[in-house]
Amino acid sequence: PDRYAVIGHPVDHSKSPEIHAAFAHQTGQKLIYERLPAAPGAFKTTAAAFFADGGAGLNVTLPFKGDAAAYANRLTDRARRAGAVNTLARGDDGTLLGDNTDGIGLVRDLEHRLDIPIAGRRILILGAGGAVRGVIPVLLEYGADAVCIANRTLSKADTIARDFADLGNIQTCALTTSANGWDIVINAISAGLAGEMPNLSPAILENTHGAYDMVYADQPTPFLRWVADHGIERRCDGFGMLVEQAAESFMVWRGVRPQTAEVIAALRPGSD
Ligand code: ATR
């Protein structure tokens, strides 16, 4: 069977092997999917050895998404835009295609689980890191009316806005903004991981239909607890985005799109 793996540092807690095993089982595809740890600085040698040994594809996670973009022979438009690759696929001629399925993963999860179509929406994103760079082009491609990036370091938000200005209406503001009227508020601040959120103005949630945290955990995240306290009923964490980006990678590799809902339900942290 074809061999796939997730490469990163660290990868021992990655859920990708379980997710892809569930997809393979569901679709009747025969494949092997493993974890491939690589020391910082060793992405290229580790990936090269994997493909030389017959590997068919890699998922790429932190901190190697930029290295993977440089390593690929060809990039999809969405990967080039993001400057980051989370999916490498070996073609029949041996060349490597680099793709980025993070943005489409977010859009699918917003539409499926949060039940809010993106077209025409005004979206506030908190944070301006690598993850935001990956998703903004796709939000605009799917017809978001406006995206505002709120970040502690405003210059980082401004740089992203400038880089993607040709794709649509992108604004920036301070993290302490009280601007409102956002249909969807998305958290992409990694501080959420450590269990703390910076002080945000509850005013940003006025007239908001749903809130999304790109982070996930087996407990409600600090951001989702905060929005719940302010009366936002439609809330989702990023576990669905993880499964959706994996489904899109599976599609790139195997040409088959798995059903995600049952896999999200079965593998969600805290579900067993
Ligand atoms: P990722 O790849 O997950 O996006 P990243 O590139 O390290 O991670 O970006 C982290 C984001 O979280 C940034 O927007 C960062 O804000 P700055 O650009 O101002 O550094 C934000 N962040 C991290 N810790 C934060 C904190 N304590 N308060 C506010 N924002 C924080």
TrEMBL record:
GO terms for biological process: amino acid biosynthetic process; aromatic amino acid family biosynthetic process; chorismate biosynthetic process; shikimate metabolic process. NADP(+) binds at residues 77, 127-131, 151-156, 214, 238. One of its GO terms (molecular function) is NADP binding. Residues 118-191 form the Quinate/shikimate 5-dehydrogenase/glutamyl-tRNA reductase domain. Keywords: Amino-acid biosynthesis, Aromatic amino acid biosynthesis, NADP, Oxidoreductase. GO terms for cellular component: cytosol. Residues 6-88 form the Shikimate dehydrogenase substrate binding N-terminal domain. Residues 238-268 form the SDH C-terminal domain. It catalyses: shikimate + NADP(+) = 3-dehydroshikimate + NADPH + H(+). Its EC number is 1.1.1.25. It comes from the Bacteria. Involved in the biosynthesis of the chorismate, which leads to the biosynthesis of aromatic amino acids. Catalyzes the reversible NADPH linked reduction of 3-dehydroshikimate (DHSA) to yield shikimate (SA). This is Shikimate dehydrogenase (NADP(+)). It comes from Salinisphaera shabanensis E1L3A. The gene is aroE.
